[in-house]
Amino acid sequence: MANVTSMIWEIKEGYSLSSPGVFSAMLRVPREKFVPVKYRSQAYDDGPVSIGYGQTISQPYTVAFMTHLLGLKGKEKVLEIGTGSGYQAAILSLLAKEVYTMERIPELAVKAGRRLKRLGYKNVCVKADQGEYGWPKFAPFDAILVTAGVEKAPKNLFDQLKEGGVLVAPVGKGVDKRMMKFIKKKGQIVREEFGIFHFVPFVTESKKPRSGRRHKSSFS
Known about the structure:
The chain is of the alpha/beta class. The chain has a single domain, classed as Rossmann fold (3-Layer(aba) Sandwich). Helix content is about 25%, strand content about 30%. It has helices at about 5-15, 20-30, 60-70, 85-95, 105-120, 155-160, and strands at about 50, 55, 75-80, 100-105, 125-130, 140-145, 160-170, 175-185, 190-200, 215. The longest helix has 13 residues, at about 105-120. The chain is globular, with a radius of gyration of 16 Å. The N and C termini lie far apart (about 40 Å).
């Protein structure tokens, strides 16, 4: 059965990704704690795992690559759109100073917040709300990570990005998305494109909903 060491080896050798800081963080996060008990034997396999509600925890390589593209140094304030199980937020918490993560499915947000708190990730704040609006209260952000496929990155998120900040998102129509890295330079957005990835769709609402419940696992 695969384990965290073999998972990292697969990412390095199978995908030729070199990112020591990201790998170090992934080695410290128990991925099996972020998947349902019945799927724990699949936690370190090279693929996504169902977490219920039609959602998945992303393939390890996808998590590693998207995190790598953010280029975190340790002092950043990061916004994640699409908390899911909280696994990606846990990785980010070890690489950044503050992590704010949003999940549109309240049940997942509650579970992720409790899980992150239980496992000791103290610099993560979870909110149940629509991610397309971002989190203006804590903006601007040094980095923003969108973990669901979008046809185009919401303008609200670019508005909440600091000068020199980075936004990473899978973009395009259909289920196959192009991984995009956007850098805000002098008020303009510079784009870089990286390969095709498969993602569940980003769900939006026609109008802004009421503020969702916030499930805080840090900053007390």
